[in-house]
Specification:
The chain is mainly alpha-helical. The protein has one domain. The chain is built from two helices and no strands. The two termini are 46 Å apart.
């Protein structure tokens, strides 16, 4: 019955729909920011492996660490370019 409808219920429903849409957008942005944080850690490890190579007595250890850093960088770049731009 129309007499039992609250006058602000339609506006409350509209604001609830807006809140749900904004929450979904916020969760998507949170997921993207988590990915970029992981990339920061990955590329920091690349810098670590590149910086520590050349510090050991055996050249094979230096080459392995440098190759490991290059492999991590390649994997990180490939994963990074698969992210959405906006």
């Amino acid at each position: 019955m129309p007499a039992y409808v609250l006058p602000g219920s339609s506006e409350a429903q509209r604001w609830e729909d807006i809140a749900i849409a904004e929450a979904v957008a916020g969760e998507r942005a949170d997921d993207i920011s988590d990915r970029y944080l992981v990339f920061t850690i990955v590329f920091a490890s690349v810098l670590f492996f590149g910086g520590i190579s050349g510090k050991f007595e055996w050249q094979i250890v230096d080459v392995v660490l440098l190759a490991l850093g290059a492999a991590v960088m390649l994997i990180g770049l490939l994963a990074m370019f698969s992210l959405p731009i906006a």
